[in-house]
Amino acid sequence: MPTTFLCEGAEMGERPTRIPVIAVIGYKESGKTTVIEGLISRLTERGYSVATAKHIDQKGFRIDREGKDTWRHAASGANPVIAVSDVETTVIHRKGLGALNLRSLLDLIPKADLLILEGFSKIVLEDKHIGKIVCVRTLREYEDFRRRIRGEALAFCSLETLGEPILSVKENLSTLTERAIEYVERRKSILEILDSLPNLDCGKCQYRRCESLAEAIHDGRAKLDDCALIKVRPRLKTRITLNGVEVHINQFISEIVRRSVLGMISTLKGVEIRGDETLQIEISQRK
Ligand code: SF4
Q1: Which pTM value belongs to this model?
Q2: Atom of ligand 1 nearest to the CA of 213
């Protein structure tokens, strides 16, 4: 059953996205939807689950209509409003302009191997965490996008025959799909590595950001314990877990927590602290 997410606003941040995201960008009538259709059918044939989001470049656009029951639900304060028919489910999120960004958009997608965006050029061009396929109508547009794009484009393509390196959409949908798959697999692997890193961007390793270290590990240039926090873990005398997930701390914090807690415990009646004890405290909501 197809599901439509209707949201307002479009501001995108800089954190890595939770799943790979590919954006197909370009001006009106440049072939974006044709490329996306081709990608979706080829990727789903290959077993990928694909979610898409399209930026509607029309001020005040709404799928919902004034006076409809769903409109009245939302007007009374419901958010989201879900409309279910025998063939389709539409989830309408009433959010003010700018209240939604790419990361919160991803939270609306329960499960998918990748998200394909149509449009959102202004934001996508600046976001290096998004793979870009750029549809151009002329060589001038190609030059213009090449200058403005941050990071690598997966491909430039056109409905016209503009010559290398611009791929013809009609003849090269398979090449575009292969590039998309290569990108998705690389991003998936980097995001998995990132899950094993503290994700604190503390700047204490030579890579400065966790994602850069994850990329280096993926490319075989680094290993997990190049992360300064992971490297010191065996030497830490304090370990903190929150809801079963380890909270990464450095040696300094480890010592502060250890000394403060042991200091407090030592004031309790009948407790003698030597400094080499193993102490476990569990805090829970159990009644
Ligand atoms: S030291 Fe670890 S937590 Fe800090 S930026 Fe590097 S990888 Fe991330």
Answers
A1: 0.77
A2: 7
Query: What is the chain's percent helix, strand, coil content, to nearest 5?
Result: 35, 15, 50
pLDDT, tens digit (0-9, with 9 covering 90-100), for 258-279: 888 888 888 888 888 777 778 8
Q: What is the mean pLDDT of the chain?
A: 86
In percent, the amount of the chain with pLDDT more than 70 equals: 92
Q: From CA 235, how far away is CA 225, in angstroms rounded?
A: 13
Maximum pairwise Cα distance, the chain: 85
Residue 79: Cβ-neighbour burial (10 angstroms; 0-12, 13-18, 19+)? exposed
Give me the CATH number covering residue 46: 3.40.50.300
Same domain, 23 and 156: yes
Q: How far apart are CA 212 and CA 240, in angstroms?
A: 26
The response to whether residue 112 sits with its C-beta less than 6 Å from ligand 1 reads no
Our answer on whether the CB atom of 229 is closer than 6 Å to any ligand 1 atom is: yes
CB of 53 within 8 A of CB of 117? yes
Atom of ligand 1 nearest to the CA of 228: 1
Which one, of 147, 144, 172, lies nearest residue 159 by Cα?
A: 172
205 lines ligand 1 (CB under 6 A): yes
Q: Which long-range contacts (CB under 8 A, 24 or more apart) does 262-268 make?
A: none
Contact 119, 54 (CB under 8 A): yes
Domain that holds residue 279: 236-287
